[in-house]
Amino acid sequence: MNLRDLHEKARRSLDPVHYDYVAGGAGEERVVADNERAFDRYALLPRVLCGGERRDTAADLPGAPGASPVFVAPTAFHRLLHPGGEPATARAAAAEGAVLVTGTASTTPVAEVVAAARSRDREAAVWFQLTAHPRREATRALVRRAEEAGCTALVVTVDSPVFGRHTRDLRNGFTDLPPGHAAENMRDLPGAPPGALTDIPMSPAVSWADVDDLVRRTALPVLLKGILHPADARLAVEHGAAGVLVSNHGGRQSDAVPAALDCLPAVADAVAGRVPVLLDGGVRRGSDVAVALALGARAVGVGRPAVWGLAAEGEAGVRRVLAALRDEYDHTLALCGGRRNSDLTRDMVVRKGGTW
Ligand code: FNR
């Protein structure tokens, strides 16, 4: 069973409105489609006679040494999609040695998510995705919750000054979590006005000063998620970011941006090795992982594929997704004559149709 089959199984098992919530994106969903298509525009040019019996695919990431090169990108509301919720995702990621980026919009409190991961692997790395609250005091409280829970890095989402307009959700009237579900990390936040726990407030006034404040106040590495412009990648490093995640939010924010993959080389050049560069968006096969690593990523995230695994088969489904991608990636690395991730270099990626 491959990832496509799990996607199909998830589609059949989910309420169609919830399926659309996950599958959909902003506007005409041009970016959703382009993120995947971008990988089809490249081919891998292998090297020969330089491989080894064993390959080392571990990636050293902030707060996660020796992790799988495939991590679980933050996605909201797992209990809506499977009763096992975020704890099931966390156990699966930990069992596969993959970093889980758990979200501000989790339907399980972050402390329980980390505990679930550590029940599988005492060393499991869980990162906390932070959506900065319009009130700084509330943001600081969220950070404290993540620190106390034992998260090993913060991933600040910077591509969401306003909420994306998800066409399918608007058409389906899906604007609130159904009764019985809540964004648990948002409960009783100091400084936040009491209100519904069904959406995550955002602010277009969040700025580099907020990044400075965060970096100053936490001992955790701070990564910025949603960087596309190389100038912002440079600023991120200057403001103390420990990593840059090239992402267009899976096509759920602007429908006018380039595919995430197409932004990667320029960001990698701007960062120039000072901090790790990560990527998410459209990764569906092991060879996609290889292309992204060759173009400068240290690791790649999967959003929807992990959710399809969860919805289809709970913890076991997420494990299958992560194991399949890691296994396919390892196989691709062998076919490219590589022994380790850094053996994949930019000269080994060519535009299809040939550029020489
Ligand atoms: C997301 N994503 C996301 N990102 C984020 O920073 N905070 C969030 O709360 C969410 N929530 C969310 C929900 C759902 C249902 C999806 C599909 C995505 C974006 C996510 O982290 C990631 O950037 C993309 O999903 C990557 O693209 P793929 O792998 O889905 O193609």
Automatic annotation (TrEMBL):
The keyword GTP-binding does not apply. Its cofactor is FMN. It comes from the Bacteria. PROSITE patterns: FMN_HYDROXY_ACID_DH_1, FMN_HYDROXY_ACID_DH_2. CDD domains: alpha_hydroxyacid_oxid_FMN. InterPro entries: Aldolase_TIM (IPR013785), Alpha-hydoxy_acid_DH_FMN (IPR012133), FMN-dep_DH (IPR000262), FMN_HAD (IPR037396), FMN_hydac_DH_AS (IPR008259). Keywords: Oxidoreductase. Residues 1-354 form the FMN hydroxy acid dehydrogenase domain. Gene3D superfamilies: Aldolase class I. Belongs to the FMN-dependent alpha-hydroxy acid dehydrogenase family. This is Alpha-hydroxy-acid oxidizing enzyme.
